[in-house]
Design brief:
alpha/beta, 6-stranded parallel beta sheet, PglD_N, Trimer_LpxA-like_sf, transferase, AcTrfase_PglD-like
C-alpha cells in the first residue's frame, strides 16, 4: 500500500520508521514546506505541502499521515487538504498495545510501548506518544497529543486539541477542556477549562490563551 507523509521533522521521522517496519506499506512521498520544488529521489517524491494535491490526483488510492507534532498546525493542514478521512492511515507501532475494545480515529499515531486499554476512545489525528498509558474508558477527542510516559487513569476525558506533557498524570474521572496544555510532570486532580496552561503538583491554571489558534 502506497503511503504519503505530510511533515518531515522529528515526529515525522519516528512515524516513517513505524510505517517502514510493516512490509505492506511503501512510502512514496514526503511533503513539507522546507521543499520548494517538486522532485523525486530514489523512488520517493518530495515537495511542498501544496503538491499533495497533485499526488491525490495521480495516486487516488494512496494513504496519508499528517506527521506533525504541533496540534494546531496538524489541524490546519488536515482542514486545508482535500483528503477523504478514509484515506488517512492509522499508525500503530508493533510494540504498542491497543485493546480489542478500544477505538482509534483515522490518522492517529500510536508510538512504541504505548498502552490503550479497554473501551478507550481516541479521536482522529491524535498522537499517543512513546510509553503513554491511556487507561480504560478514556475519551480522547481529535488532534490531542498525549506525550511520552504520560498516564491517563480511568475514565479521563481530554477534549479536542489538548496536549498533556511528558510524564504527567491525570487521575480518574477528570476532564480537560479544548486546546489546553498540561505541563510536563504535572498531576491533574481537578477538571481544567479550555484554553489554559496548567502546571504543577497538583496542576493549577497559570495562563489562558486562544483556543486552537483561533
Amino acid at each position: 500500500m502506497k503511503v504519503g507523509i505530510i511533515g518531515d521533522g522529528g515526529h515525522s521521522r519516528a512515524v516513517q520508521e513505524i510505517i517502514l517496519s510493516d512490509k505492506q506499506y511503501e512510502i512514496i512521498g514526503v511533503f513539507d514546506d522546507q521543499y520548494k520544488g517538486f522532485d523525486k529521489s530514489n523512488g520517493v517524491y518530495f515537495g511542498p505541502i501544496l503538491s499533495v494535491n497533485k499526488m491525490i490526483t495521480d495516486f487516488p488510492e494512496m494513504k496519508w499521515v499528517v506527521a506533525i507534532g504541533d496540534n494546531v498546525m496538524r489541524r490546519q493542514i488536515v482542514q486545508s487538504l482535500d483528503i477523504d478521512e478514509g484515506h488517512y492511515l492509522t499508525v500503530i507501532h508493533p510494540q504498542a498495545y491497543v485493546s480489542p475494545s478500544a477505538m482509534l480515529g483515522s490518522g492517529t499515531v500510536v508510538m512504541a510501548h504505548a498502552v490503550i486499554n479497554a473501551a478507550a476512545r481516541v479521536g482522529k489525528h491524535a498522537i499517543i506518544n512513546t510509553g503513554a498509558i491511556v487507561e480504560h474508558d478514556n475519551q480522547l477527542e481529535d488532534f490531542v497529543h498525549i506525550s511520552p510516559n504520560t498516564t491517563l487513569t480511568g475514565a479521563v476525558t481530554i477534549a479536542e486539541g489538548t496536549q498533556v506533557g511528558a510524564g504527567a498524570t491525570v487521575i480518574p474521572n477528570v476532564t480537560i477542556g479544548r486546546w489546553s496544555i498540561v505541563g510536563a510532570g504535572a498531576t491533574v486532580i481537578n477538571d481544567l477549562p479550555s484554553g489554559c496552561t496548567a502546571m504543577g503538583m497538583p496542576a493549577k491554571v497559570r495562563t489562558r490563551h486562544e483556543i486552537g489558534g483561533m
